[in-house]
Amino acid sequence: MLAARAVRPLDAPPSTGADDDPLQFLEVAEREPAPVPDAWVPVRVRAAALNRHDLWTLRGVGVHPEALPVVLGCDAAGTTEDGRDVVVHAVLSDADWAGEETLDPGRTLLSERWPGTLAPVVRVPARNLVDKPAELSFEEAACLPTAWLTAYRMLFTNSGTSPGDTVLVQGAGGGVSTALVALGAAAGLRVWVTSRSEERRARALELGAHAAFAPGERLPERVDAVLESVGRATWAHSLRSLKPGGTVVVCGATTGDAPAELNRVFFTQLRVVGSTMGSRDELRRLAQLCAATGVRPLVDDVLPLAETAEGLRRLEAGEVFGKLVIRP
Ligand SMILES: NC(=O)c1ccc[n+]([C@@H]2O[C@H](COP(=O)([O-])OP(=O)(O)OC[C@H]3O[C@@H](n4cnc5c(N)ncnc54)[C@H](OP(=O)(O)O)[C@@H]3O)[C@@H](O)[C@H]2O)c1
């Protein structure tokens, strides 16, 4: 079947820098995916969203080397063989793991060890399926499992904020950032964003942000929480934008690692909270939230699977506002 795969050679070292063109290791071709455990159930993929995670996988970051070449893609919405419309939870924990899925030390995301969603069919454990609300299109539902679930947990589980508080979202146009703006505004938070681009700052305001600033700009007042996915380019600004006792929730470091600034952290009693994906239960609640409130993932464009390379090129170039969706 046609699938988009990472075909990075085993002897190529992982690269975290922009010096390495990740697309050189992308192959979109007719190939059979690697086998998965017999008990896993097939889901016909109706829509799959792209994530920066796919670029990391092409760079050899986070992927199990023995899984290569591997079908890319963490996100899917689709239909099971018995006609159930579902959203696929991308976090694969051990079948014997009893706790919250993301805390299993052996957990992986789809495409890190097992074939991902950029193919007509993905196979996953039955427990990883969540009902797709009828109110959401397959394209919208496909955006939920990674970027939107991560944003949900950052805001509602980890930021410690309440309606009326002010949060700063670093970056405006990304998958996680647009989810943070839409969900935060819907939940009654005052949402401020930064972006490198004036046009993207304007679009963030249309999406529900209450103010938008250039990177590093001094804010009118300090905020209760900062939601970080950018890393080195924004980290210092994040720490100095927080009120004493404020919280920075960090889910990623697109621009690389940053100095921790320990003196500022202890002196102003900041809380630094790491956040990764979300549980199946959080995914269910996120889907219900979208169905009930009318909040919807912002889909920038929908491309056929054969055009995955063009989608990933746009993502790498920072040309996407919201989510890019692939239709196998
Ligand atoms: N821990 C987890 O579970 C988890 C889940 C999802 C994502 N992530 C990570 O979170 C990060 C964001 O993911 P994504 O899918 O939202 O990526 P994305 O769609 O590519 O978005 C990238 C974001 O970074 C901002 N940005 C990029 N370069 C920047 C720079 N030099 N200076 C300032 N801002 C910059 C962009 O803002 P503007 O273009 O508006 O300036 C944009 O908001 C990635 O590193 C990803 O791996 C982690």
From TrEMBL:
Q: Which residues form the Enoyl reductase (ER) domain?
A: 18-326
What SMART domains is this protein classified in? PKS_ER (SM00829)
| Region span, Disordered | 1-21
One Pfam family linked to the record: ADH_zinc_N
Note the InterPro entries from the entry: ADH-like_C (IPR013149), ADH-like_N (IPR013154), ER (IPR020843), GroES-like_sf (IPR011032), NAD(P)-bd_dom_sf (IPR036291), Zinc_ADH-like (IPR052711)
Listed GO molecular functions? oxidoreductase activity
Put simply, this protein is called Zinc-binding dehydrogenase
Q: Which organism is it from?
A: Quadrisphaera setariae
Q: What is the lineage of its organism?
A: Bacteria, Bacillati, Actinomycetota, Actinomycetes, Kineosporiales
